[in-house]
Amino acid sequence: MNDRQKLPDRRDGDMCTFDFGGVEYTAHWSAYDEDGRVGEIFLNAGKEGSSVDFTARECAVIISIALQHGVLIEKLYDALPKLLDGAPAGPVGMAIREAMEN
User: Fold this and answer.
1) What are the pLDDT digits (tens) for 25-69?
2) What Rg do the C-alpha atoms of the chain give, in angstroms?
């Protein structure tokens, strides 16, 4: 396993909000200064403390750990389920796609 590449303590980031299945999600992400690679994603959903919010936050932790250990964001995105039109089938894929595109 690769060593963790820590992000700087102070960093800029971007965010977006989107709706999935009637639940509003907010995704935040930041990138490495050196090459612009996304290094972390935060994802919140619905009412704070709800099961959907906990699930979204837990998924974001796993994504961030993978990114900081050298897994390419494109590999994570490609591994997630897609709809017939190629769009993400779930909110985690939607958050990753937004981070990749912005």
Assistant:
1) 999 999 998 899 999 999 999 999 999 999 999 999 999 999 999
2) 13
CA angle 56, 58, 62 (to 5 degrees): 115
Burial 34-48 (b: 16+ CB within 10 A, else e): eeeebbbbbbbbbee
Decide if 27 contacts 43 (C-beta within 8 A).
yes
Distance CA 83, CA 38 (A): 24
Q: Please tell me the pTM assigned to this model.
A: 0.90
Helix (H) or strand (E) holding 67: helix 51-68
Both structure tokens of 32: 């490495």
